[in-house]
Amino acid sequence: MESCRSGSDDLSDPQFADLAARLTEDSELRVQFRRLQQADGAIKTAFASVPVPAGLADRVSRRLAELVPTTASDCSSADCLEAPAVTMHTVTVPAAMTTDRPTPLCDPSKQFSRRRLLVGFTAISAAAALLAAVWIQTHPPRHETPNVLEEAMDFFGKDNQPFGELVSRVAPPVGYPISRDIVRLQDIRWRHVEEFLGSSAVAYDLPTIGGRATLYVLQKDVPGLPSIPPLMPILSTGGKSAAAWQAGDSLYVLVVEGDAGMYTRCLEPRGPVA
Amino acid sequence: MASDSNNQIIQRLIDDHLDAVYRYAYRLTGSVHDAEDLAQQVFLLAQQSLAQLREVDRARGWLFTILRNAFLKMVKQTQPDLATSVGVDLEAVPTEKENGRAVDTADLQEAIDELPAEFRVVVAMFYFEECSYREIAEKLDLPIGTVMSRLARAKGHLRAKLIETEPVRKKPTPTQ
Q: Which of residues 137-176 of B touch A (CB under 8 A)?
């Protein structure tokens, strides 16, 4: 129901055939659906109600004229012409539009540098993967770990609770602290969850880009877990990655939407082990 | 000659779409200043990449894509400051809706600001761009399940803040 747009004919979409059928049979559901659609309509209307500052068009036009940009049409490189429709990641966006000149789309030295960077990154990734494979081989988790992670991933997949409290505003419960190994971000939120691995837990939602990431903390002892977060996820499946570690009485389970890269972005960078 | 033609196209894009781009940027950033910067950035990038625009009729969607990417990039560079921004400079403009209840646009912005950036983008695409969940998944290159989950959570948050009378379900306060 949440995916049906207000004022649209989404219900005629075959994807919503089940919902359409249920709506014809279930009057309560129909009322609920109508309320949702009304709420959506009101929010949609409010969304577009933003006053535009006076003179904005003039300011934007003037700024563009001042910057005298190098356009993509000036570029003869095949790479540039075949660039995807939106190339934000290949364009250096001026941090301050008022002072910086835009960087041309096609700077051969930059492309070369990017290629070298890519090669370097690939090599580092391969080395990291190899190290991780060796580490996992030499530190095999006991049989309980996969079950814990599979259950955690399942929970994470169904975890649709409302957003919790900002850690910076409301202290999380004592006994369920966030791990020091999680990357420091100011807008981490916490909330209570029930029946996570059969226990009450605190979930910390990390404000990541590109996917959800939640750290679950609970009082539970799972033998065989490392005492610090593994450098790579222990389990990656179904578009999710997860790992668990045990620090004292606290069990930490980090589940993210995405691959190992997403997982490692959630961890505080660690220096080399002496 | 080509430059003159490009300038004309850009000026037309500004005339036709700047207001929408600014409104969208405002909803994403929650600040008049950031929204204006972001809108300028969108048209600058559009000017640089104008050769990629093949159908002027579809320019709005193209500009919105640039806007979303620029916003996410900006959040990445400035996080966590922007993601936690709660500064609301907008004057409240109550909006009537069909059942008589109104959603205050300043309250709406406050509720949007509380969402993580990736949820903000999804919910803006749904309400502002009027994208279907499938279109959102395609444009953001995300699994449909992820989009549906984010939409449900973000919409639930907005409704709880703006429309529903019962508060968001809260658990016992933390013990100190």
A: 142-143, 145-146, 148-153, 155-160, 162-163, 168-169, 171-172, 174-176
